[in-house]
TrEMBL record:
The keyword Membrane does not apply. It comes from Anopheles arabiensis. InterPro entries: Efm4/METTL10, Methyltranfer_dom, SAM-dependent_MTases_sf. This is Protein-lysine N-methyltransferase. The keyword Cytoplasm applies. GO terms for cellular component: cytoplasm. It is found in: Cytoplasm. Gene3D superfamilies: Vaccinia Virus protein VP39 (3.40.50.150). It comes from the Eukaryota.
Length: 220
């Protein structure tokens, strides 16, 4: 019998108010200086995922539908668009994040669908339809940090991701708060492990670990 996963300590990073305030500042910076803002987990993490997707050319086609959960400034999808992917959707529960991502996308003359969507809302998720690739870099982490009942929110998140993923689809998740084994255990009811995307490791006290974990799931 697997051990109970210990919930993370709540943080303002798990609240909508924090992200609305952050993206309000980033919109101002973008307007004043052209600065697109922070890339969550740095550009290396983003580039590793894009390279992995590109290598799956027999399975992931340029016109397959791809959605980025908690898209923030939208840069992940902008880079995918530059690689030739054409059916791209970004969602975020922060209207300010979507305002920023739309502005950047418009200025770069790209065609990406950005929408304000709450991942905790089953009707809003159902209205999106299904996708070949569902990508998340940091949103599951943020949900896990919600100060109130993060466990229930994680359960809703997992169910809604399952709902939006095609039966033959791939769910790509990058986390800095959960280990590979914890992620596999948390998603085990609805998902099975496809592969782990290698990330840089460090050695401390005789043990090897990673700063981030990037994992690919399939539907059960």
């Amino acid at each position: 019998m697997s051990e109970q996963i210990e919930e993370l300590e709540g943080s303002e990073l798990g609240t909508k108010d924090f992200w609305e305030s952050s993206y309000t500042r980033e919109i101002a910076n973008y307007r004043d200086h052209g600065d697109v803002g922070e890339v969550w987990f740095d550009e290396d993490s983003q580039n590793r995922i894009i390279c992995w997707i590109a290598k799956q050319e027999d399975e992931i086609k340029a016109d397959d539908s791809i959605i980025d959960l908690g898209c923030g400034n939208g840069m992940m999808l902008i880079e995918l668009a530059r690689e030739g992917y054409t059916k791209l959707t970004g969602i975020d529960y922060s209207p300010k994040a979507i305002e920023l991502s739309k502005a950047i996308c418009r200025d770069q003359d790209l065609n990406i669908n950005y929408q304000v969507v709450d991942l905790m809302s089953e009707p809003e998720v159902a209205a999106l339809g299904q996708f070949k690739v569902v990508h998340d870099k940091g949103t599951y982490d943020a949900i896990s940090l919600h100060p109130e009942d993060a466990k229930t929110m994680r359960t809703h998140y997992i169910a809604n991701v399952h709902r939006m993923l095609q039966d033959d689809g791939l769910f790509i998740l990058t986390s800095c708060n959960w280990t590979e084994s914890e992620l596999v255990q948390s998603f085990a009811e609805l998902f099975k492990l496809r592969t782990v995307i290698p990330t840089p490791t460090f050695k401390f006290g005789g043990k090897v670990g990673s700063v981030v974990t990037s994992i690919v799931f399939e539907k059960k």
